[in-house]
């Protein structure tokens, strides 16, 4: 079964880590959709999991923009 990200884990990440993870997941989603269209995808559930992870990442980034919650800062990680 595909493993998804937990909001608690995302909030512990730095802004740079979140944006890198978001970029990676968007690329993975593109590749999964491509493979699905070519009928070469074994685990179609992975598309749903990746889409939800992208939504979680974007939601937490938006929380940070609005000041609802603060994500870990670069200096706090060191």
Task: Please give a structural write-up.
The chain is an all-alpha fold and 78 residues long. It has helices spanning 7-11, 15-37, 45-66, 74-77. The protein contains four helices and no strands. Helix 2 (15-37) runs antiparallel to helix 3 (45-66).
**Regarding CATH, which class?**
Mainly Alpha
User: Which percent band covers the strand fraction?
Assistant: under 5%
Mean pLDDT comes to 90
Number of strands: 0
Structural class estimated from helices and strands: mainly alpha
Give the CATH topology.
Helix Hairpins
Largest sheet: number of strands, sense, barrel closure: none
Order of helices and strands: HHHH
Identify the CATH architecture: Orthogonal Bundle
Shape: elongated
Ranges where pLDDT stays below 50 over 5 or more residues in a row are none
Number of domains: 1
Helical segment tally? 4
Q: How far is the N terminus from the C terminus?
A: 34 Å
The helicity comes to: 55-70%
Measured on Cα atoms, how large is the radius of gyration?
14 Å
């Amino acid at each position: 079964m595909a493993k998804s990200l937990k909001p608690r884990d995302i909030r512990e990440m730095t802004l740079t880590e979140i944006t890198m993870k978001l970029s990676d997941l968007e690329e993975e989603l593109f590749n999964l959709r491509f493979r699905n269209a070519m009928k070469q995808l074994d685990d179609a559930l992975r598309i749903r999991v990746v889409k939800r992870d992208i939504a979680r990442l974007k939601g937490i980034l938006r929380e940070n923009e609005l000041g609802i919650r603060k994500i870990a800062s670069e200096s706090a990680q060191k």
